[in-house]
Amino acid sequence: MSNIVGRVREAFRGDQRVDPDALIARLDAVQRFLRAVDGQVPDARLVAAHTVVERAGARLALSGDHTVVALAGATGSGKSSLFNALARLELSPVGVRRPTTGVAHACVWGQLGGAGRLLDWLGVLPRHRFVRESALDGDDESGLHGLVLLDLPDFDSVQRTHRLEVDRMLGLVDLVVWVVDPQKYADRVIHTSYLREFQRHKDVTVVVLNQADRLTPAELPRVLADLRRLLDADGLDGVPLLPTVAVDPAGMVGLREALERTVAERQAALRRLAGDVDAVVAELEPLVGVEPPRTGPDDASTRELTRALAGAAGVPSVAEAVEGAYRHRAGGTTGWPLVKGWRRLRPDPLRRLHLPGPAADADAPAESLVAATSVPDPTAAQRSALNLAIRAVGDRSGADLPTPWPTAVTAAARSRLGDLPDALDRAVAGTDLGMDRRPAWWRVVGALQWLVTAAALAGLGWLALGYALRALGLPAPEYPRVGEVPLPTVLLLGGLLAGLLVAALTRPVVRWAARRARQRAEKRLTISVGTVGDEYVLVPVRSALGRYAQAREALGDAARR
């Protein structure tokens, strides 16, 4: 047995120390992870992380001078006897009827002090607390000062409340001493339901083979070797394994020295919390397993989205109206003055859509530019195309991410879908369509048309005057001639023909300029609806991808030791 105790001492000396500041930094990283994934990952997958953060914060805020050690085991393993043997007092009931221990009992070595708040947090009732401090012992118990030893109920108790109490305590204590006996050390329940769950807490796990006195000197090494094999299969290789005999003080030396060393190091609480963080990080790693493929949607998805938004916003209809309005307004300025009145009877295409009117409307109140338009509502096909484009943005952006991030990214893309119609309408209404100023050449052509019209009217008036004089029997005036043709006739016919010629020459120029105006307006409208798509679709997607990157970085920080 002395050789076994020696190997256990070496195992404890090999434990690495946990830096409290590094542990706090890792816990902060877990909190950053939780903030980053809030609302993106189902809460059910984050329960363990929230529990660890809250538990660690509470434990670190409590006494750092005490080490909480729990004795856990199955019915009949002798936990209570071991508890009493370590305390050297009869504190926990021992009996033949099972289960004997129904609630946790605690023994504190040294003054109760800060251990009281620790026991309150653990939920140990005051009547089940004992203080191991006696003047009769002298310095015999000084090596365990700071130890809070718990005797837990049996984890295989027939009473469910006992099992629940064990599970609760195992999540709170700093170090667990698993007590097994020669008859049930290979029991499937303790190995599959408990020991294997402590793979990441090897630094704060001790296994004792109690009642070792029931084995012969030849049987003890074989049983310990078999138990070691089972522990290795559970992933607990290197965990200290000690034989104990509760009825013999010599059989308690190894365990007592292990506890004294643990208390002196004051590392058990930190190691336990570090193991909890390791377990949480391992559980959360599948959520952020890959590098974010991009910081936002790809160009192809963005272009498809912009096209779909333009269709839903009625950009083609507005651009067509701009072309019609350009021709309408250009005709009103450059057309033949004698037929302008007929053009005024036709409505301005942009006015019918409640979009910015001609330059005469420039003094209108600013809010009229962002009022609701009369652009036709999108068709079912256009709405369907927009929904598909938005979904494509989310699906492609989150395609390479682990579950549940693709769903979260797609949901982010659709998060403001209900606000899009009004936003698109405002964007169209607020876009400068380039129709607020009349080109200078319009005025030049208009002035020319008025000039030739005035010439025609002058010729007509001059001829009318001659006819009137003849009708009155007065001498007819002598008309100047241009060749053989009287000047008034030249003015009349020349003015009419010149007006028609200017109109004919201007018409193709107006059509070409109207197409250019349509293209400019369409480009500006596309930019406007693209801005809406960026704000209402792409920004939420980038935010979700950014939170994924933040979560991955935070979990990477939490994984560093």
TrEMBL record:
Pfam family, one: MMR_HSR1
Transmembrane segments: 447-469, 489-510
GO CC, alphabetical: cytosol
Protein keywords: Membrane, Transmembrane, Transmembrane helix
GO biological process, alphabetically ordered: ribosomal small subunit assembly
Domain G residues, every copy: 69-210
InterPro entries xrefs: GTP-bd, GTPase_Era-like, P-loop_NTPase
Protein name, as recorded: Putative GTPase
Organism: Micromonospora kangleipakensis
Alphabetized SUPFAM superfamilies for the sequence: P-loop containing nucleoside triphosphate hydrolases (SSF52540)
A single GO molecular function term of this UniProt record: rRNA binding
